[in-house]
Amino acid sequence: MEPYKFDVNNYRNLLKKYISSQDEKSLYQAEQFSKLSMQHNISPEEIINVHIQALKELYPDLPTEIDSSMNFLLETMISYGLAYQEFQSLREKQGELESEISIAANMQQTLLSTTKPDIKGMDIGAISVPSHQMNGDYYHFVTDESNNLGIAIADVIGKGIPAALAMSMIKYSLDSFPETMRNPSVILENLNRVVERNVDTSMFITMFYGLFNHETGSLQFSSAGHEPGFYYCAAKDQFHEITTKGLVLGVSDQATYEELEITMEPDDMVVLLTDGVTECRIGERFIETEEVLEVIRQYMHLPAQEAVESVYRHFERLQDFQLRDDFTLIFLKK
Amino acid sequence: MITKSSVQINKEWDIVGARQMGRELAKDLGFGTVDQARIATAISELARNIYLYAEKGKIAYETVEDMNKKGLKIIASDQGPGINDLSKVMEDGFSTSGGLGAGLPGVKRLMDYFDVVSEPGKGTTITTIKWVR
């Protein structure tokens, strides 16, 4: 088949052939014609105009009623043509925005990257997946020379770019705290003041901070309104919620944070997460805590990294591969 | 020869009169059917804006000639509230999202030249030209 040009002759011949034979091939060529027209930004009213001209050439005695009716049709197409042009320009703009956001998302990943520490006697797994391009969840590991481990996990209420921007601030505040400042409650109190001072009152950040003492196996922790984590006690084969009293960050500069401690025995595990895990939706309902633990149990025998990834894939599938919220999950196995 | 004429916009039906005059001038100047329809649509949009936001104003027409081309200049002016944020109004999808019509970006697309001057509280003047192809 010859390539089609957008001109009246071409269209007229095509139309003539179709009127005489009413064959599918001509209709297929008409389809090609319309696609080509779109590529060349030909608007619908111009197609109608070409149709009118072709019709007049094929039937010089075209009844004036038909002629007028065609003009009427042309007139009604003008707004569609405009809408089509607008659509194209918006699509272009969308492309630009998307590429800007993806650059920002890459940058965010670099800014917020944290290395999972290698600590003897500990198996750590961590995964964080944004529901959109930019992540409003955050986790961070710090270690000192005695192999003590600080773990932060945080969630900005809200999603997307504003959440991601707020997270960068959290990370840099954490980085700027002196190394001697290690108590979870003190860290949260300080972060709370930073957030209270710098972030819009409509934005809240929840955070869990834990400090694992390598020598004693104890985990001190404080929570600023964060989704409760779980402590799995191997001896009893039971999960216990771990959380403490404390306001979300940024509400009041007077907030103080309770600090609790647990001691981990071999084969015990600590699970930290964000509400993207616990508020996973199956159809119309939210998943129950019991079900979350069920899934965790199913995979926790695996090496920690493999386990968190398996849990993620499990929930991803449950939600038809469309995360509704950023998803972050950390396993700390002893 | 330069022709000048205008139509007052005071009520919705004046929009039809404004279209009519624009179309006749366009036809006389030798515009094709499609361009006639585009000019009429642009006039509709301008006249509707006057009717909806300024209550009254006018659409003026001038035939213009450049080196080797002829065109139709349409000037819509009113003493209405004016437009506060012009760049917002000229953004795609801003006025069209509510299905109100082509908006000013639409008028700009329909015509070859587009200029808008507006002062909040004093009024708006929009000048557009379409050249005969």
TrEMBL record, chain B:
Lineage, top-rank taxon, reads Bacteria
What GO molecular function terms would the record report?
ATP binding
Q: Does the keyword ATP-binding apply?
A: yes
Instruction: Name the UniProt key words of this record, in alphabetical order.
Output: ATP-binding, Nucleotide-binding
The record's SUPFAM superfamilies line, in alphabetical order, gives: ATPase domain of HSP90 chaperone/DNA topoisomerase II/histidine kinase (SSF55874)
A Pfam family (short name) is HATPase_c
Say if the entry is tagged with keyword Endoplasmic reticulum. Answer: no
Domain Histidine kinase/HSP90-like ATPase residues, every copy: 35-127
Protein name per UniProt: ATP-binding protein
